[in-house]
Every structure is written in structure tokens, then in C-alpha cells.
Design goal:
Elements: H1 5-11, E1 45-49, H2 53-65, E2 70-75, E3 80-81, H3 86-91, E4 100-101, H4 104-110, E5 113-116, E6 119-123, E7 128-131, E8 134-137, E9 140-143, E10 147-149, H5 160-165, H6 174-185, E11 191-196, H7 207-221, E12 226-231, H8 240-250, E13 255-258, E14 263-267, E15 272-275, E16 278-281, E17 284-287, E18 291-293, H9 295-299, E19 326-328, H10 335-338, H11 345-363, E20 372-380, E21 386-396, E22 401-409, H12 415-433
Helix pairs in contact: 2-11, 7-8
């Protein structure tokens, strides 16, 4: 169905708010300790592990739900680097500074205690999370593990040389910079290969938006070059007709799309990419492997079945199947358990709010509220124009899963939607970090 102007505004952020600039967030003094119980618990406490889109949202909204509940956020990286919008860094429309922020306002405005360290073990009986900074007690734990790459799924990829040669760039940061630098250094007339993994995968940064922006870059700066998109799926998995129309209109002689072409082997020494449809010699290759839940999900024992790649959680509260009072949010969640929601930043933001509310309410002896989730995903197809998909999701009492309630795509690409994409990013960054 098409989205009306009224529903479009309803499902997206219209307001633009300031976001913090590059720097360092405050670190709780106790983070300097290395063993034993740190920051002894004196009252009700929620610990959030993972300071990305889902984790920061959960920490903020838990404090908003009940300012009397202590909230501790644990994260390894002092910098918050946004995966959504990172494709624009690769395409040259943005810089890393544009997508890099601190978490200072979470501490200053909401009293969230931030510990920059890494979790190593979970004792769900004693309700303690062991980190490299020491052991932290909790009443409720919200975990946002993010994603990992299954390098073993592609022959020749699971080694340092190949990973460096073929950056995935689905974890914003050094990988993003590496792919951008390879494109800039490539000589005109070169061949870029972009490998789309099988679903489910994190999006954004979406692979088809990335293909569009790389094609746009090649068209402007690398005469005679082309990009070949090899897709493990049988067709473009999101906004297909809109992407294909843009490719035909703008990149007819630059972008080649090949479906049913999963990458099976790579050779870092030659740049040859082997797919189910044949071999391609690349000058630059963006190989995006199959994805799984982040490493911490496995390390902390959150997997419910031996062959699970994502974490099973209750669709109503997002509480882990494995452990009571442990909630899992974001890209790491198992679609079969939670429901068919996309692994997007906006959904992670929604899940953070759902889990925060459920954790606080049950901690205070109240019933959790029925969850609702929302998603809007913009994709730039050139410097100025964007397309989008928007949807809302609700809990279904029959299937006990989250299901689609409404949604649709933009009727066409437009410069206006490109401006909306910018506004959306500023608004949601402020919602997460402001």
C-alpha cells in the first residue's frame, strides 16, 4: 500500500534536533577497578550491555520511565558511530565526523552511569555481569549484542589478509573508512564488486543504497568504471522496483545486478570473487558475509539452541528464552521467536523502548505493556534523491509474535525525501543520545 502524507509524518521524525559532537563521554570512576564487585548496588538497578542504537535507547528510556531506578550502561567504545548514514561516508556525501558522537548527554541529562569496558561472563542466578573492569550486580539486564560476521561461510575469507582486502563495512568505523579509501584509490576503469549476503542481515547500512552511492561516485570520478552487485538472494530484498528504476535511469552502463549469485570463494592475492554464477575479477570488493548475533550473545550463553545464530526472546517483553530478567534487543534477536521485523536501526530503537518499559514495570511490580514497533528506512540513490519504506508492527495474541500492522514504500524517489532522510537521522540521533 502507498503511504499518505499524514501517515508518512506519523511514522517518521519531522523535527530536527542537535546531536553531540565528536569527543569522549564521561566514564564512571569505578571503571578503573579490575576485579571484584564494583559500584555496589544499593537500590533497584538496570544494567544495559551495548551502547549502540538499541542499548543507548534502552538506558535513556529506562531512566525516563522511572528516574529512581539506577541505570548503568556498559560499552567498549567511547565513540558512538552510526551505521545508518554510514553509506554516505562511503559515497563521499558525508564524513566520519558527521556520524560520530559521544554519549555525554546520557550521563548529563539522565544520570546514566557509563562504564567503558567489555563483558566477559554472566551469572543469571546471582544476577551479576562480569566485565574486564570488575563484576556488576543487576536486577534487570538488557543486552544489545549487535552483529558478527560469519567469515567461515565464504572460502578464503577467514584470514587477516582477506578481511583487510574485502571490508564488509557493516560495522561503522574503521571498516567504513577502509572501503571509502579503496574506492578513492582505485584507478578509472576499475571493477567494484559488492556482495549482498542472504537475509537476514543488518540494514541500514543497506547494500542496495550502498551500490547506488558507489555507482554515483564512479559516474562522477572514475570514468569507465563499473560496479557489479552479486546478490545471494533471488531479487532485491527491499524497495526493489524503486532501486531498479534509479539504476536504469542513472547507472545503466555502470551498475550490473546479478541475483542468485552468492559468493562461495574469494582470493585476496588476485581479487577474484567466485560466485554461484561464475568468477569476477575485482579491483575493489565489498564482501558482506552472512551475519549472526554479536559475539557477546554467544559468550554470555544467550543462545537457546546449539545451532542458533540469533537470540530467541519473548516477543511481548523481549526477555531472553534462556534467562529470566535478561532482555535482548536489536539486530541480535531471532526473527522466528520475535517475529518478522527488519534488523534496522529504527527497530533497535523501538526494541530499546519496549525492553526498557518491560524491565522497569516488572521491577516495580507492574504488568508490561503490549509492545509496538516502528520502522522507517531511507535510502539515498544519488547525492540528492532518496526513497523510503515505512512500517509499524504490533503484537499478535494468536501467534505470540510481532507482526506487521501497516506500511508501504515511497511512490517514487525525490529530493524532498532526501531532505527528510537528513532530518530523520538528526531526529533519531537526538532521541537516542540527546
Amino acid at each position: 500500500m502507498s503511504i499518505t502524507r499524514r501517515n508518512f509524518i506519523k511514522y517518521t521524525f519531522a523535527a530536527v534536533a542537535g546531536a553531540s559532537v565528536l569527543g569522549h563521554s564521561a566514564v564512571a570512576p569505578a571503571a578503573q577497578k579490575t576485579s571484584g564487585i564494583i559500584m555496589p548496588k544499593k537500590g533497584k538497578r538496570i544494567v544495559v550491555l551495548g551502547g549502540g542504537w538499541g542499548g543507548c535507547t534502552a538506558a535513556k528510556y529506562a531512566r525516563m520511565e522511572d528516574p529512581k531506578v539506577e541505570v548503568i550502561l556498559i560499552e567498549r567504545d567511547p565513540k558512538f558511530i552510526s551505521c545508518p548514514i554510514s553509506n554516505l561516508v562511503i559515497g563521499g556525501q558525508k564524513t566520519m565526523k558527521d556520524i560520530t558522537f559521544t554519549r555525554d548527554k546520557l550521563a548529563k541529562n539522565y544520570g546514566i552511569k557509563i562504564v567503558y569496558t567489555e563483558a566477559t561472563a554472566l551469572d543469571a542466578v546471582k544476577k551479576t555481569l562480569t566485565t574486564k573492569a570488575g563484576t556488576i550486580e543487576y536486577d534487570k539486564l538488557i543486552v544489545s549484542p549487535g552483529i558478527s560476521y560469519d567469515y567461515d561461510a565464504i572460502e578464503g575469507l577467514n584470514n587477516a589478509a582477506a578481511i583487510k582486502k574485502f571490508p564488509a563495512a557493516f560495522k561503522a568505523g574503521a571498516e567504513t573508512v577502509a572501503l571509502r579509501e579503496k574506492l578513492v584509490a582505485m584507478k578509472p576503469g576499475g571493477v567494484v564488486v559488492l556482495a549482498v549476503p542472504p537475509v537476514p542481515y543488518r540494514c541500514p547500512p543497506g547494500p542496495y543504497e550502498r551500490a547506488s552511492l558507489i555507482a554515483n561516485f564512479l559516474k562522477k570520478y572514475k570514468k569507465g568504471s563499473k560496479i557489479i552487485v552479486v546478490d545471494a538472494n533471488d531479487d532485491v530484498t527491499s524497495k526493489g522496483p524503486l532501486f531498479k528504476k534509479a539504476w536504469a535511469d542513472y547507472y545503466k552502463d555502470i551498475l550490473e545486478y546479478i541475483p542468485d549469485a552468492a559468493v562461495t570463494k574469494v582470493d585476496a592475492s588476485t581479487g577474484v570473487i567466485t560466485t554461484e554464477q561464475g568468477e569476477i575479477k575485482s579491483d575493489v570488493a565489498n564482501i558482506i558475509p552472512t551475519m549472526t548475533a554479536g559475539k557477546s550473545a554467544f559468550d554470555l550463553g544467550l543462545m537457546n539452541k546449539p545451532d542458533d545464530k540469533f537470540v530467541r526472546a519473548d516477543a511481548y517483553t523481549l526477555e531472553s528464552y534462556n534467562f529470566k530478567d535478561v532482555y535482548v534487543i536489536g539486530d541480535a534477536t531471532h526473527n522466528g521467536a520475535v517475529g518478522g521485523v527488519p534488523k534496522s536501526g529504527y527497530v533497535a530503537n523501538s526494541m530499546g523502548k519496549v525492553a526498557a518499559s518491560a524491565a522497569v514495570r516488572t521491577l516495580n511490580g507492574q504488568e508490561p505493556l503490549a509492545p509496538s514497533l516502528i520502522n522507517t528506512c531511507y535510502s539515498m540513490v544519488n547525492d540528492d534523491e532518496a526513497i523510503f519504506v515505512a512500517a509499524s508492527y504490533k503484537y499478535d495474541d494468536v501467534s505470540k509474535r510481532i507482526i506487521s500492522a501497516s506500511g508501504g514504500t515511497s511512490p517514487e524517489r525525490s529530493v524532498l525525501f532526501g531532505k527528510h532522510a537528513e532530518d530523520w537521522a538528526l531526529g533519531i540521533w537526538n532521541d537516542i543520545l540527546g
